[in-house]
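Action item from last meeting closed. Structure (365 res):
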């Protein structure tokens, strides 16, 4: 079986990775109620590194003690105790010769569990579409969020930078991924129907990207040039699966051109099936469009790529790295299995029920 490109070494910024395979960020609500990562998370994360993944991206981690927390039992990066919890996780991954990036996240309107404060905040007071996720202990409609003011937005930018600093210099992560995807706060700013602002944070798609660009800049300033910084971008959302950017390739050209100039080290793109055309009436996938408008940028692709032929196809389209979500959950050792010519196990969603926390069966004996 020809699997070569997946197993060549590569770089994201100044960090060397032994292959092109990453574990996609996956929230598993297994921290303490106070947001501290514990033994189960150490064992779980180290297992992917043991299984051969060059890189693991952490679950989304909240960034402040205000409204960024999204789910109960989610881990944070907002205190020395939380950093110490993550430090044990990153040490365990490093001991298995793996690398791990922190995904830093603000929930915005999609918060369903917050240890610190009640309510939720967003670009505009628009009730999110869809229903809260029951496997993260949510129920029913999302509440209507409160509109953020400019000072609060500045505060959120600083909190992203503080959490990035804490991730790298206290918790020992090798890089930082800003969560700009899947319907959370930064994506709420980017999305036309959730951002109705008329100040500098709203308007056309370039205006709606300004908060993500400001966060990138602040994070970069805080962690310096040596540390990889990336952003995850998607069209679909956890609460609006089939959303498409309204102006198709025109929007893509604006977003990817600005991100290419932003100083990020990588762009993480997620689509349901990463090889599919991104827009009706246009044959190009999002990865191909990113290559077109951000030719120099390192691209990580995600979306149903656990079949090696699909993963290779998307690398041929221009992706440099492949991130696996469900494929990695079903096979913590996916890279070792595939390299040995073995088939991957099929993902069984029962592992995420009734609550999506880490199960005993996922932990090494
Ligand atoms: C249980 C679970 C939790 C997830 N949590 C996150 C998250 O914290 N951050 C994120 O960006 N994506 C999250 N995702 C999305 C995955 O990173 C990935 O995009 C999705 O599973 C599709 O990739 P796949 O087809 O390889 O599974 C999650 C997915 C699953 C299944």
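Sequence:
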């Amino acid at each position: 079986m020809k699997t070569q490109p997946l197993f060549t070494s590569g770089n994201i910024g100044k960090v060397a990775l032994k292959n092109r395979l990453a574990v996609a960020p996956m929230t598993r609500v297994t921290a303490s109620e106070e947001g501290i990562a514990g033994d189960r998370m150490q064992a779980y994360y180290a297992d992917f590194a043991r299984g051969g993944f060059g890189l693991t991206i952490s679950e989304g981690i909240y960034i402040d003690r205000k409204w960024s927390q999204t789910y109960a039992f989610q881990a944070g990066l907002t205190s020395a105790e939380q950093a110490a919890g993550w430090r044990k996780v990153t040490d365990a991954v490093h001991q298995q010769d793996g690398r791990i990036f922190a995904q830093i996240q603000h929930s915005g309107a999609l918060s369903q569990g917050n240890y610190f404060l009640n309510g939720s905040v967003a670009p505009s007071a628009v009730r999110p579409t869809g229903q809260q996720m029951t496997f993260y202990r949510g129920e029913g409609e999302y509440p209507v969020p409160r509109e953020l003011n400019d000072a609060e937005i500045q505060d959120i930018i600083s909190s992203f930078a503080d959490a990035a600093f804490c991730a790298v210099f206290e918790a020992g992560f090798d890089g930082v991924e800003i969560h700009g995807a899947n319907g959370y706060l930064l994506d709420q700013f980017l999305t036309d129907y959730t951002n109705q602002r008329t100040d500098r944070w709203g308007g056309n798609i370039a205006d709606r990207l300004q908060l993500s660009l400001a966060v990138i800049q602040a994070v970069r300033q805080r962690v310096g040039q040596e540390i990889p910084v990336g952003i995850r971008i998607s069209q679909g959302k956890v609460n609006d699966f089939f959303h498409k950017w309204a102006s198709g390739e025109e929007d893509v050209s604006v977003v990817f051109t600005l991100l290419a100039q932003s100083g990020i080290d990588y762009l993480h793109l997620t689509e349901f099936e990463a090889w599919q055309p991104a827009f009706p009436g246009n044959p190009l996938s999002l990865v191909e469009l990113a290559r077109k408008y951000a030719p120099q940028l390192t691209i990580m692709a995600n979306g149903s790529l656990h079949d090696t032929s699909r993963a290779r196809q998307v690398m041929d389209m221009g992706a440099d790295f492949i991130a696996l979500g469900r494929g990695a959950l079903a096979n913590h050792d996916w890279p070792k299995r595939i390299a040995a010519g073995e088939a991957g196990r099929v993902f069984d969603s029962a592992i995420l029920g009734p609550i999506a926390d880490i199960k005993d069966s996922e932990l090494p004996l």
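Note appended to the action item: The CA atoms of residues 66 and 132 lie 20 Å apart.
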